[in-house]
Amino acid sequence: MIKILHIAKPIGGVGVYIQLLTKHLQAEEFCNVLLCNKDDKITTFKNSLEEKIETFHINLNREIKPLSDIKCLIDIIKKIRKIKPDIIHCHSAKAGILGRLVGTYLKIPTVYTPHAYSYLSTNSKLKKHTYKQIEKAFKFSSAKTLCCSLSEYNRTVNDLNFNKKNVLLWNNSIEDVANVVVNESGYSLPQKYICTIGRPSYQKNTELLINTIVEIKKQRKDIHLVVLGVGFYSPSLVKIKELIKNKKLESNITLVEWIERKKALSILKQADLYISTSRYEGLPYAVIEALALGKPCVVTSVDGNKDLIEDNFNGFKVKKDKNEIVDKVLTLINNEEERERMGVNSRKYFEESFKIEKNIGLLEEIYKSMK
Q1: How does 221-232 read in b/e, with b if 16+ C-beta sit within 10 Å?
Q2: Per-residue pLDDT tens digits for 88-121
Q3: N or C, which terminus of the chain has less Cβ within 10 Å?
Q4: Residue 82: which domain range?
């Protein structure tokens, strides 16, 4: 039995990742344990984690706070000595820093999944440089980097100059959601709409998305955007609500609070297309879900997004340019035949590449090779 300790703030995609691993790794061969903040587990796993995962709590801050981080580091060491894991798997930047330090100190095999590097998450040149140098410092560590997408792998090797022998790839993967029941959301929506999933934030570049709808409305007054995943840790929510009001888009945009996944998927399943204006991603579960539901996608050509969409095959990759996004969205809205063709291709690509039942074996082999 291989005991894997996940150190994480299991919010959003990271929570989904750990939930899926816990469910699909062979139970007779792998045991998963979670080390996270107390409130993180309550928020992320409520009504969603089918298999129980033993959980221990720490005080893991998102920002760099030296005194607090040292206390957390000491606490992690104490917890790990009690848990006695065979492998440490740390997720995202802060857990990755502390987890790799502890793994080196305690001589425990350690793997780190960035889920999109932190230096991509800021427009501050100083912060970007600082975060990048911290990541680069770990290229001399014995820890492996397990990337969640090909673009993240390439960034690790080419941008951070990590040795390829210490960089691994396992694509984010999900269970098939094609059989989700429609009309389960409880929301009254127009018959035709486009959809996105993600909290209003710098990462999701929601302002660009709203301004895109302004331009589309000039040609299609019936345009309607449904934004799912609003409400939980949405740094730009107030600003976005003000922008919607100022642009007189109240009847064209529906903001949906954090709801059960099956209800969110029900809404996505009925959409004409999926849209993402993100500045960066790891390998977005939302886009993978859109592929599984046979949706054409219009996405910005950034890390993560660009791994999932091929131009004119299952959607369009665009620059972070309002006019280009408008053009591609209108192309699909106005052409049902093209939407259907690309939707079929999306579904095909999902079945070939992103079903967790097909891909979990590779991750199991990675874990076994580390023990």
Answers
A1: eebbbbbbbbee
A2: 999 999 999 999 999 999 999 999 999 999 999 9
A3: N
A4: 2-173+356-370
Beta bridge partners of 112: 90, 145
Q: How many domains does the chain have?
A: 2
In whole angstroms, what is the distance from residue 122 CA to residue 126 CA?
Answer: 9
Q: How many angstroms separate the first and last alpha carbons of the chain?
A: 11
Indicate whether 88 and 221 sit together in one domain: no
Helices (H), 53-144: 66-83, 93-106, 125-137
User: Region 258-284: what's the mean pLDDT?
Assistant: 95
Largest Cα separation within the chain, whole Å, is 62
- How far apart, in whole angstroms, are the C-alpha atoms of residue 128 and residue 226? 32
- The Cα–Cα gap between 354 and 332 comes to 24
User: Is position 187 within any domain?
Assistant: no
- Looking at the structure, tell me whether residues 168 and 307 fall in a common domain: no
Other beta carbons within 10 Å of 218: 9
Report how far residue 114's alpha carbon sits from residue 14's, in angstroms, rounded to the nearest whole number. 10
Same domain, 8 and 114: yes
The pair of three-digit structure tokens given for residue 302, joined into one six-digit string = 């950034």
Confidence band for 3, pLDDT divided at 50, 70 and 90: very high
Q: What angle do CA 181, 182, 188 make, to 5 degrees?
A: 145
Q: Is the pLDDT of residue 42 over 50?
A: no
CA distance 149 to 284: 9
CA 212 to chain centre: 23
Question: Average pLDDT in the 328-336 region?
Answer: 98
Q: CB of 44 within 8 A of CB of 122?
A: no
